[in-house]
Design goal:
7 strands, globular, seven-stranded mixed beta sheet, Glycerol-3-phosphate (1)-acyltransferase, alpha/beta
Length: 207
């Protein structure tokens, strides 16, 4: 990440403070980050958590305007058709991982607009990249929708793999199973994060 790219992130840090737990769980080499999703700003928190080059899958509609497309790509954005991912997107995502980089995916497939922090159903197809590249997955959960100057909390869980699916023909049934595993891992982190927040609130009340 060059100097000009770091300036917007510096401003982002000032406007959107955060507390990140579990950064020590990020391994060297390739990995897929799976994170819950509230807004386009979520990518900024992932970049802050890792603080190195990280790639993102972003809906292809964001790339329709050349200037915006160029900006998103400069920060590692890879366009994807959410309803019917194409071979080119799959190839680029797998290449990023095989080259040893980190790739961020929002497996809920859309932003959470329910007004709650409940984890939405996971689309198993979103983690096919991790299986094809045979790399670990890290579950990441954010405490809620971002608001300016409001601290958000993020937890990064320990890496896990879907190696039982490696080199198999990924049928719809197997993809559903992958999605359930990812959902369970993310939900575990959500519970841990809620416990951390609850304990901190309890301590403040005692003081």
């Amino acid at each position: 990440m060059n100097f000009l790219q770091k300036i917007p992130l510096f401003i982002f840090n000032l406007l959107y403070p955060s507390k990140i737990y579990g950064k020590e769980n990020i391994p060297d080499g390739s990995a897929v980050f799976v994170c819950n999703h509230y807004s386009a700003l979520d990518c900024g928190f992932i970049a802050k958590a890792y603080n190195k080059d990280v790639y993102f899958l972003a809906k292809k509609e964001l790339f329709q305007k050349k200037l915006i497309a160029k900006l998103i790509k400069s920060y590692g954005g890879i366009p994807i058709n959410r309803e019917n991912p194409d071979i080119k997107s799959l190839f680029l995502a797998v290449k990023v991982l095989k080259d040893g980089h980190k790739l961020t995916i929002f497996p809920e497939g859309t932003r959470n607009k329910t007004g709650t922090n409940k984890l939405l159903p996971i689309k198993g197809g979103t983690v096919v990249f991790a299986v094809k590249a045979k790399c670990p997955i890290l579950p990441i959960m954010m405490s809620g929708k971002t608001r300016i100057f409001k601290k958000i909390r993020i937890i990064i869980g320990k890496p896990f793999t879907l190696e039982e699916f490696y080199d198999k023909k990924l049928t719809p049934e197997l993809i559903d199973k992958m999605g359930q595993i990812v959902y369970d891992k993310m939900f575990e982190q959500q519970v841990l994060l809620e416990d951390i927040i609850s304990n901190k609130k309890h301590k403040r009340k005692k003081q």
